Amino acid sequence: QVQFVESGGGLVQPGGSLRLSCAASGVNFAYYTMAWYRQAPGKQRERVAFITSVGNTAYADSVKGRFTISRDTTKNTMYLQMNSLKPEDTAVYYCNKNGATNNWGEGTLVTVSS
């Protein structure tokens, strides 16, 4: 059974940084394109970054240059380094396979506020 556990969220001031982690079971990160998503209050879930099975990465325009996706295949863990955070980055962040429609974890809440 595929399961994702996200962690690392919290309250941070604008301009600050956070590093999110995603631990997975039932799926091998080395074989899939994996992604980070977020859902802000009252908005639809959106993909913010993905990393392919060979390590290529891509980002939504809204986070490009500020966020970095990475993974450690030996630990089957994925990360999202978030720098220069803005209030509009406030959301619950989730990890999953790219294009996923199910098997969502509980996510981790990121709040950017002064």
What does this molecule look like?
The chain is mainly beta. It has strands spanning 3-7, 10-12, 18-25, 34-39, 46-51, 57-59, 67-72, 77-82, 91-97, 108-112. The chain has a 6-stranded mixed beta sheet, with no helix packed on it.
Task: Give the key terms.
114 residues; mainly beta; 6-stranded mixed β-sheet; 4-stranded antiparallel β-sheet
Strand order in the largest sheet = 2-10-9-4-5-6
Overall spatial form? globular
DSSP E strands, number: 10
What's the pLDDT, averaged over the residues?
96
Radius of gyration: 13 Å
Note poorly predicted spans: none
Please bin the fraction of helical residues: under 10%
Order of helices and strands: EEEEEEEEEE
Structural class: mainly beta
Distance between the termini: 40 Å
- Portion in beta strands: over 45%
Largest sheet: 6 strands, mixed
Q: DSSP helix count?
A: 0
In terms of quaternary structure, the protein is: single chain
In brief:
This protein has 114 residues and is mainly beta. The chain has strands at residues 3-7, 10-12, 18-25, 34-39, 46-51, 57-59, 67-72, 77-82, 91-97, 108-112. Strands 2-10-9-4-5-6 form a six-stranded mixed β-sheet, with no helix packed on it.
